[in-house]
Amino acid sequence: MSRTEVGTEDQRKPGRPTRPPLTEGAIADAALAIIDESGWQACTMKAVATRLGVRAPSLYHHVEGRPAILDLVRSTIAAEIHDPGILELPWDEAMLRFGTAYYRAFARHPNTIEVLSTTPVRDAITLQLYECFLQSLHRDGWDGARAFEALLGLEHLALGFAFEWNAEGLMLESARCAELGAPLLAEIVAERPEDQAALAESSFMSLLRRYIEMFRIPG
Amino acid sequence: MSRTEVGTEDQRKPGRPTRPPLTEGAIADAALAIIDESGWQACTMKAVATRLGVRAPSLYHHVEGRPAILDLVRSTIAAEIHDPGILELPWDEAMLRFGTAYYRAFARHPNTIEVLSTTPVRDAITLQLYECFLQSLHRDGWDGARAFEALLGLEHLALGFAFEWNAEGLMLESARCAELGAPLLAEIVAERPEDQAALAESSFMSLLRRYIEMFRIPG
Q1: Is residue A142 less than 8 Å (CB to CB) from chain B?
Q2: Between residues A10 and B215, which one has the greater pLDDT?
Q3: Staple partner for A165: which of A156, A200, B7, B31, CB 3.0–4.6 Å?
Q4: Which residue of B has its CA nearest to A202?
Q5: Where is the DNA-binding region (chains A, B) (predicted)?
Q6: CA angle (A175 as vertex; A170, A178 as ends), nearest 5
Q7: What is the DSSP letter of B77?
Q8: What domains does chain A contain, in order, with CATH numbers?
Q9: pTM of the model
Q10: CA end-to-end distance (rounded Å), chain B
């Protein structure tokens, strides 16, 4: 469905009360809000329609079904990350900026990680987000396959720490580690701050810098 | 609840038909089967009880609730990964073996990744799995905090590729990339095999080796 077909319903039905036009942006925002609150399984066509104050058949007039909704959600998050400015940066700074933005976007939307990690990428904004990252490495002489591998690994690191940032309380408690036969782990955990979000953040940033260093090694 | 209290119900109620004893192992297997099939949200106390052929109150006699069920599930997967043999290996081989086993276990149970990544680790087997990894690095002179960071990053890489291994079809199609303004990505994707599971596997193994090399850099 092209963007020009979207948002025309209110004009066709002048007798209905005025409501915000049913744009792709509005549909994506509603779907993302439902996923953030209740997860992907709760994000049915009916739930999105209800949130937008329309009936499900009206929504089907604008998006073909849940896979199309998911494309819109993926685009919305990709747009939060996408920064063509990285094309002007050396590859290491591009990787740092991309990785940080990627992590932060998914830390805001952890309930999207599983479904977006296991379904095909089909939307233009995500594909261009990837292209931009790959071009900024390619321009600095990177082989394509190696740049792609760097992209995948960076994504997975970022997503894992985005989950951790959202964990319910501390993932590990020193006393429990000591009690259950893990003395070295107990000692390490005791020396870390007790704020799970801060821990996830500092661990990710540290590993991200290390990850970038790793790609200075040839081959 | 200690293990000795478990599995005694059938002896107390001799009039009931014989069924497998309600052990922690049986409860964990039933819960994991439900999560594998339908996700964590479907894994209610009632659903686990039904699968075991008992009523929910009987199940509550053995486990306190969903958090306790989750501890059992985490233990079951940790047991699939745990290999004290890594203590005999140099740190790089230990990391390779641990990372591979971790990835394979979660590739078999992708529906557990989100919930296990966002809830506290409290069970003895997982804590000892971590301890064993940390000890094998520590024994080779690693600083504890650095070893712990290596563990976290390794987990997240493995989990991300475990998701990818389970993706519905190919994550990226070359023709679509070309069509939507991502020519370099299209070229890279065209040169890769078209088997998503094989792609996930080879990308993970390649990045795992690179990840291990990265920790040869001091600091």
Answers
A1: no
A2: B215
A3: A200
A4: B149
A5: 44-63
A6: 120
A7: H
A8: 19-63 (1.10.10.60), 79-168+198-214 (1.10.357.10)
A9: 0.89
A10: 43
